[in-house]
């Protein structure tokens, strides 16, 4: 025979067991492994978080239609991020904290706030800011890894740049700058590429260039709506320059195909600059950095394609 208090204690015990079992079951659903990427995994929680991040940052309603349209690109982003993470762990590479902080500041300014305010946006929408931050750190560590691998090949002929700048001064030509935004997508070199290009074109028409960049672009600039800022014409590759030279502000280029990627460029604005007003050292630094970044992106995309083709990516039902 049990006393009343013994019965109550036993009842409470069974209730705790039931609650724990329900919580464990719920956790297993929330953290279901969707994809194995080498030694990395992608969980349903991560996918849900990434989808919500894309929609909230692009000011889109969180409904089933938008979730369905965003899910595939969110998953592709996570797969690429896991591939990159596997490599940076293998080679023990870390992100530059200053670069990460500067980038967070740039993203925050897009929403008229600071880093704390950006985190509050995540908290208010029940999104993990830590996962978002980890993604940024992974991207910067990846860039550092690629630079470590190819720093001897990332060489810009500064003599040619000096000669080009001297010609501008001698001829008293006006300099020209372009305010640009980009969407960069990694190509698979199969039939999916054409579908991906058409989908991006449709999305640009439906939700705008900035939101499409946040949703689809593989470039780090995607977090800032693809914004690249003002770039001197001399800093641009001849291919990109020839595509945007005759464009008007607001125009968007056709996809510019490179070895591993396709790039859409939007011309936000352009301006002429009198040579006397130009800080030549600043322009030279900008040209050097732009050309180095182009080489860095080329090596990064090539390496990502290589490891993607040699890594076991297993989708779980």
Report on this model:
The protein has eleven helices and seven strands. The protein is of the alpha+beta class and 317 residues long. Strands 4-3-6-5 form a four-stranded antiparallel β-sheet, sandwiched between helices. Strands 2-1-7 form a three-stranded antiparallel β-sheet. Helix 7 packs antiparallel against helix 11. The radius of gyration is 24 Å and the shape is globular. The chain starts with a helix and ends with a strand. About 4% of the residues have low confidence.
Largest beta sheet: strand ordering: 4-3-6-5
Summarize the main sheet.
Answer: 4 strands, antiparallel
Note the gap between the termini: 50 Å
The number of helical runs is: 11
Radius of gyration: 24 Å
Keywords:
317 residues; alpha+beta; 4-stranded antiparallel sheet; 3-stranded antiparallel sheet; 11 helices; 60% helix; 14% strand; globular
Give a quick summary of the entry.
Helix 3 packs across helix 6 (129-150). The chain is an alpha+beta fold. The protein is built from 11 helices and 7 strands.
Describe the secondary-structure layout.
Layout: H1 4-30, E1 33-37, E2 40-43, H2 44-57, H3 64-90, H4 97-110, H5 115-124, H6 129-150, H7 158-171, E3 175-186, H8 192-207, H9 209-216, E4 227-232, H10 238-244, E5 256-257, E6 261-273, H11 280-310, E7 313-315
Antiparallel strand pairs: 1-2, 1-7, 3-4, 3-6, 5-6
Helix pairs in contact: 2-3, 3-6, 6-11, 7-11, 8-9
């Amino acid at each position: 025979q049990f006393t009343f208090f013994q019965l109550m204690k036993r009842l409470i015990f069974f209730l705790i067991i039931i609650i724990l079992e329900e919580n464990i079951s719920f956790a297993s659903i929330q953290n279901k492994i969707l994809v194995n990427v080498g030694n990395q995994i992608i969980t349903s929680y991560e996918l849900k978080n990434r989808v919500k991040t894309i929609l909230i940052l692009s000011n889109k309603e969180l409904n089933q239609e938008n979730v369905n349209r965003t899910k595939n690109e969110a998953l592709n982003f996570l797969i690429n991020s896991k591939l990159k993470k596997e490599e940076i762990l293998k080679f023990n590479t870390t992100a530059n904290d200053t670069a990460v902080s500067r980038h967070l500041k740039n993203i925050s300014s897009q929403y008229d706030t600071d880093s704390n305010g950006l985190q509050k946006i995540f908290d208010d929408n029940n999104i993990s800011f830590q996962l978002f931050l980890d993604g940024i750190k992974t991207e910067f560590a990846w860039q550092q890894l690629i630079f470590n691998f190819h720093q001897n090949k990332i060489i810009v002929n500064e003599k040619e740049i000096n000669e080009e700048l001297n010609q501008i001064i001698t001829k008293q030509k006006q300099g020209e700058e372009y305010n640009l935004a980009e969407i960069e997508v990694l190509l698979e070199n199969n039939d999916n590429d054409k579908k991906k290009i058409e989908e991006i074109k449709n999305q640009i028409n439906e939700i705008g260039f900035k939101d499409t960049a946040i949703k689809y672009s593989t470039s780090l600039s995607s977090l800032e709506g693809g914004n690249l800022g003002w770039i001197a014409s001399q800093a641009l590759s001849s291919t990109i320059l020839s595509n945007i030279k005759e464009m008007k502000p607001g125009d968007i280029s056709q996809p510019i195909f490179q070895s591993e990627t396709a790039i859409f460029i939007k011309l936000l604005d352009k301006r002429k600059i009198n040579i006397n007003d130009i800080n030549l050292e600043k322009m030279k630094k900008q040209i050097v950095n732009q050309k180095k970044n182009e080489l860095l992106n080329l090596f990064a995309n090539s390496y990502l394609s290589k490891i993607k083709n040699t890594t076991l990516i297993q989708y779980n039902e």
